[in-house]
# Entry
Amino acid sequence: MSRRPAANLTEADPPATTDLETIKSLLPYLWPKGQFEMRARVAVALACLVMAKVASVYIPVLYKKAVDLISGGAFDYTVLLWIVVAYGMTRLGQQAFAQLREFFFARVAQRAIRSVAIKTFRHLHRLSLRFHLDRQTGGLTRVIERGTKAIEFLLNFMLFNILPTLFEIFLVCGVLWWMFDFFYAIATFGTIFSYIAFTMLVTEWRLKIRRRMNMMDNRANTSAVDSLLNYETVKYFGNETHEEERYDRSMQGYEDAAVKSRTSLSLVNVGQGGIIAVGLMVFMVLAGKDLAAGKATVGDFVMVNTYLIQLYLPLNFLGFVYREIKQSLTDMQQMFLLLDEEAEIKDVAGAKNLVVEKGAVRFDNVTFGYSTDRQILNGIRFDVPAGKTVALVGPSGAGKSTISRLLFRFYDIDDGAILIDDQDIRSVTQASLRQAIGIVPQDTVLFNDTIYYNIAYGKPGASQSQIEEAARLARIHDFVMSLPDGYETTVGERGLKLSGGEKQRVAIARTLLKQPKIFLFDEATSALDSQTEKEIQSSLSEISQNYTTLVIAHRLSTVVDAYEIIVLRDGGIAERGNHESLLAQNGIYATMWRQQMREESVSEPVGELTAGEVTV
Ligand code: ATP
# Structure
């Protein structure tokens, strides 16, 4: 079983893959298999790109022709007119091809972004609970957000800025060499490659600062999200100042890194400007000398200048693009690293669907710990016979909820086996296993949507009457109907606008709607007052009458009718039997029972037990 600490993606050092590998991993999305339309779009877009660049290199040649004609004394006006028309048409052509390229490629780029985003999202849902508990959701969603933005940037700029600019540089060098001599080509090359080398070197150094900035940004964001999600807890403890300080610490780190990033940018700009200025001077000296020697015309001098200016503009842009591309590559690597993350719990090859006939559950000598250095369950053995209800009770932290997580296969056990109708849950598909079990968890979290949506979640596509029926059974229908917006009431983030008991009842309703073969109630009614609890208990026992049910109970009065009650303690089963036999044993259960009876007679409803007391 994998226990490796998951790589911290949100604040990780850059992964070990090279930039080239990252770019390569993007290619299948750009040339998608079996999608003829997308491939045709890419091909046409590339053709448009080449045409646009050829036109842009030809523009200064036409300009030169016009200047030569004008500066040569008397000239034929009609010829000038034709040159000017050709000049205008070529310019228009260049623009038109550039826009056509955009037109054809936009869908390819957006489709690639969508495919990667969906793939990552799907993968995140496949990853195991341990992975998600180790991460902060705010950080994860930012990785995806930044990753998809990075892809968009890379596609647009890599394909349609960097590559075309390089292509144009080579074209211009070729034209200059052909029209003048080798030195013009060398001067162009020298200037441009010094510029590129300088930009790359300095940007590499600056990227370290950028990464720190990102890390601080992530940290600030996750601490803000965490703090706001815990809004109530912050208020309970009056810790607003503490939260503010925590947030400010991350923001201060961000501020420092951002200032450093900004000031180092000036250094880059000055260096780049210097290289271009030197290049320009060399070029003009060369052209001026040839003009003086009568080897070049005024038109040539103008053309050389136009080329320089034409190249200089995208080159100026290249600095920014290079920086952004490096950043985008880092962001994309992080997203692809998420995709490389292996799911801890996987279906075995050829896993079959779980076939539930009776729904008998068996924990056979189950040993488990969340980490290797601490065992939570130690050789647990019990049966939930088909159609019967078994209750798990015991002190807080004894491992009761762990048992429910194991049955759901959120984790794999270290030893022993968990069987449903004699099928080891590791040998069946996770989807079929989870389909068969309906759980009402201890902490119910609802989607930030309507009550209707949250109940319907148990069975997508359920009819309104089915949903209302489930709500009636969970004793929430009347409450919902009393709300001004009824089932359309929104529940707020994580269901915060509902009380604990209302949330629990929504959770019960959606599980009832699911109609699973096996029920698992993890303190499902703990937040309810005893009256509502009794009512729900009676509907639950009615519904689960012929279903296998595992109940994790806080209040013992709710499980007196259970077929068997298992008392967990220190990772093992301390006592077991039905209510009467456990009372007769006069052990832990009997003590807990008497204690609860006493409390119930003192206060009604029963409150949470105070620290130090045995909670069951
Ligand atoms: P309670 O009645 O308070 O809900 P419980 O019996 O359901 O308690 P579990 O939630 O099963 O207790 O937890 C058993 C032990 O495992 C606890 O000591 C808890 O700290 C530990 N534990 C639970 N979840 C994790 C986790 N994801 N990683 C590491 N340890 C965990």
